[in-house]
């Protein structure tokens, strides 16, 4: 028993050490990686549930690391929130979105709205508004083409202050989406206090890790109904199956995003997709 225990301990210890090493390496590499343009803009299409046509996309970052390959944001976003590098990285990603939109519109195309993620770190940073406006003006795009995704947990501390920022951004013309609605512990008060424009709900949150899928579906239906009463469109993400799509149509949900339709893809691939007029 004692031998096993020590083996397990050694394995545990090794993997902890490896993880810490990896985190330290990512932190050491981040500044240079930004300069070398190793962070890539990926876009995941968002669809109209009734027509399956593409109505927009969410910007999701990936790190194309020269030695480690493609790294998903779950591995580095928490680190960069801790050391505030997220402010620089997101600004870079937003600029990539603005460039993408400028390029697309220059080609004579109708703009497609892109939603970007705002970390809670941005919402406590007084420079947020100016940085966003700077990019909008630099690339001469409309704020109507950029939607801002905000997580309710960001509001937990001081709704008064955050509501001010949100109102300012909305007055300028941005659309505000409440991301992962219902996942935090203050969803209803967030909904009441913050002037958001639309809700994003995660299908996986309601169906996975639950021994009662019917209950998850009932909740989803009620949230869609509630949002309708508040004149807020709902986008359900994490949609993976035809069965889920059928259900969402049945409860009159408008928009969906998920592997059932498209996976996140490089910006270039998304542009190719948009050129296929049947899909848009
Ligand atoms: P999120 O904002 O909730 O983004 C949705 C996540 O679900 C993405 O993971 C996406 O790839 C994944 N997803 C979409 N459809 C499906 C599906 O049908 N099935 C499954 N299993 N997954 C699906 P990703 O790209 O790994 O991003 C994870 C999180 O990292 C995001 O969650 C977001 O909170 C954060 N994030 C990603 N990119 C950025 C960024 O540029 N800036 C900031 N601040 N955060 C980001
Ligand atoms: Ca850690
Ligand atoms: Ca999001
Ligand atoms: Ca989400």
Automatic annotation (TrEMBL):
The biological processes this protein is annotated with in GO are: phosphorelay signal transduction system
EAL domain sequence ranges:
23-278
Q: Kindly list the GO molecular function terms attached to this UniProt entry.
A: cyclic-guanylate-specific phosphodiesterase activity
Physiological role: May play the central regulatory role in sporulation. It may be an element of the effector pathway responsible for the activation of sporulation genes in response to nutritional stress. Spo0A may act in concert with spo0H (a sigma factor) to control the expression of some genes that are critical to the sporulation process.
Q: Return the protein name.
A: Stage 0 sporulation protein A homolog
Indicate the span of the full protein covered. Answer: 257 to 536 of 550
């Amino acid at each position: 028993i004692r031998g096993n225990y020590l083996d397990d301990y050694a394995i545990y210890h090794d993997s902890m050490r490896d993880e810490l090493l990896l985190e330290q390496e990512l932190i050491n590499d981040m500044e240079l990686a930004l300069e070398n343009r190793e962070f890539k803009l990926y876009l995941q299409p968002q669809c109209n549930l009734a027509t399956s046509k593409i109505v927009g996309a969410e910007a999701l970052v990936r790190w194309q690391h020269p030695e480690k390959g493609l790294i998903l944001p779950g591995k580095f976003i928490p680190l960069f929130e801790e050391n505030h590098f997220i402010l620089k990285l997101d600004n870079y990603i937003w600029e990539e979105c603005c460039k993408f939109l400028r390029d697309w519109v220059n080609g004579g195309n109708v703009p497609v709205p892109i939603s970007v993620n705002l970390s809670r770190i941005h919402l406590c940073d007084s420079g947020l508004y100016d940085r966003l406006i700077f990019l909008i003006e630099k690339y001469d795009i409309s704020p109507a083409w950029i939607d801002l995704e905000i997580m309710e947990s960001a509001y937990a501390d001081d709704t008064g202050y955050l509501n001010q920022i949100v109102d300012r951004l909305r007055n300028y013309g941005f659309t505000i989406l409440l991301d992962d609605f219902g996942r935090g512990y203050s969803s209803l008060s967030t909904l009441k206090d913050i002037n958001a424009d639309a809700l994003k709900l995660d299908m996986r949150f309601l169906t996975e890790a639950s021994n009662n899928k019917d209950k998850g579906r009932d909740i989803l239906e009620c949230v869609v109904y509630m949002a309708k009463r508040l004149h807020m469109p709902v986008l359900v993400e994490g949609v993976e199956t035809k069965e889920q799509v059928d259900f969402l149509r049945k409860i009159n949900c408008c928009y969906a995003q998920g592997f059932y339709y498209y996976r996140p893809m490089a910006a270039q691939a998304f542009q190719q997709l948009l050129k296929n007029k049947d899909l848009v």
